[in-house]
Amino acid sequence: MQDKKKKVVFSGVQPTGSLHLGNYLGAIKNFVGLQDDHDCLYCIVDLHAITVWQNPNDLKSNILDVASVYLAAGIDPKKSVIFVQSTVPHHAELAWILNCITRIGWLNRMTQFKEKAGKNRENVSSGLYTYPNLMAADILLYFSDLVPVGDDQKQHLELTRDIAQKFNNDYSNFGGTDFFPIPDPLILDESSRIMSLRDGTKKMSKSDPSVMSRIEFKDSNDQIIKKISKAKTDPLPIPSNINDLERRPEVNNLLLIFSSLSGSKLNDVLSDYSGKQFSQFKKDLSDLLIANIEPIREELTRLDNDQVFLREILEKGTDEAMKRSNINMKKIRDIVGLN
Ligand code: AQP
To answer: Is 203 designated active site?
Structure first.
């Protein structure tokens, strides 16, 4: 049931592969922390996933995998609405309306599209190009106030704000100038961009062809130890000054991961390890990772054997999301002049 006094939080994860430490520290860990004081909707954004071709069988199992990670990481279906985007058709309907609000020039500035399309821009799907409009629809459909995301989504959030403002202005005589609340991003600085373990200038990503670039939830303890021991560093010892990390992206990344998982300030981590070699630091980092990931992995194994439970949670989530989106979509259609 919606608690009208609480701020509405919306966020989502794409079911495009095995979830990793970046998804956890940049997004899912924050989702968990928000549940008590906010009205949270956490979505599995499968319509976003198909902006890049997905094997249908993999997509189906990835959807359930994201749901399992949500639950195993501590999202409580009694407190938060967990659902699959495509089971609530209003997301796609509102995205179309927002396609008609967003200016082409705004989409042309989106760096994620440029990065994902690369040199192949003429040949990627038009869905990839209008992806930010669907994301805006996800958020605005529930009149969300806050959106916890990693740093890579900041630009899309700014676009969502522009879209909401333009809609409010274009239809001010019909819905008022503050019909859609202007949502705020919730980005935790230190963990907002976790980088690849192989290249500190590239974000840790599900689609990186090298599994050694990321820590996945399903990694065994031995795999975690191996990935961290092979994580790229450099021949210099750990510095004592944060400024000395500037030209050492891989070292910076490992220290940030440590700081984020341990809850210690980066400065404190530096003073504990400055002047030391990486072998001791990497051992401690592996221990910390295992302490965080092992309980989630065990819960994932348990949920893997209880698919009925998982599907029940998702169905209930769809019912609740539909209840809300139905009411909101009626208002939106009415304002735009659709019946
Ligand atoms: N490396 C990261 N550091 C911090 N946060 C991250 N997020 C993703 N990668 C990092 C955050 O996780 C949430 C869900 O991301 P997503 O799966 O919807 O999309 P993405 O950002 O495109 O993630 P990937 O792993 O890079 O997927 P692919 O390879 O499929 O494109 C978002 O809040 C995101 O900020």
So the answer is: yes
Summarised one tens digit per residue, pLDDT across range 240-258 is 888 888 889 999 999 999 9
In this structure, CATH architecture of domain 211-301: Orthogonal Bundle (1.10)
Mutual angle of helices 126-141 and 307-336, in 10-degree steps: 90
Mean pLDDT of 130-143: 98
Range of lowest pLDDT (38-42, 151-155, 219-223, 251-255):
151-155
The pLDDT value recorded for residue 1 is 63
Give the Cα-Cα-Cα angle 37, 40, 41 (nearest 5 degrees). Answer: 175
Dihedrals phi, psi of 216, to nearest 5 degrees: -105, 155
**Is ligand 1 within 6 A of the CB of residue 23?**
yes
Q: Within 10 Å of residue 338's Cβ, how many Cβ atoms?
A: 11
Question: Tell me, which fold does domain 8-193+307-336 have in CATH?
Answer: Rossmann fold (3.40.50)
Please tell me the predicted confidence (pLDDT) of residue 120.
Answer: 86
Give 23 Cα–ligand 1 centroid separation in angstroms: 5
Q: How far apart are CA 270 and CA 237, in angstroms?
A: 11
pTM equals 0.94
**Dihedral angle, C-alpha 144, 204, 22, 67, nearest 10 °:** 70
Instruction: Quote the DSSP letter at residue 239.
Output: P
How far apart (Å, rounded) are the C-alpha atoms in residues 71 and 270? 33
Substitution site in 21, 23, 256 for ligand 1 pocket (most atoms within 8 Å of beta carbon):
23
Residue with tokens 């819905």: 175
CA distances (Å), 303 to each of 14, 73, 168, 259, 315, in order?
19, 12, 43, 30, 16
Domain range list for the chain = 8-193+307-336, 211-301
Q: Is 323 labeled as catalytic in the residue annotation?
A: no
Give the DSSP letter of residue 187.
-
Amino acid letter for position 47: L
Q: What is the mean pLDDT of the chain?
A: 94
pLDDT band, residue 288 (cuts 50/70/90): very high
pLDDT at 191 over 70: no
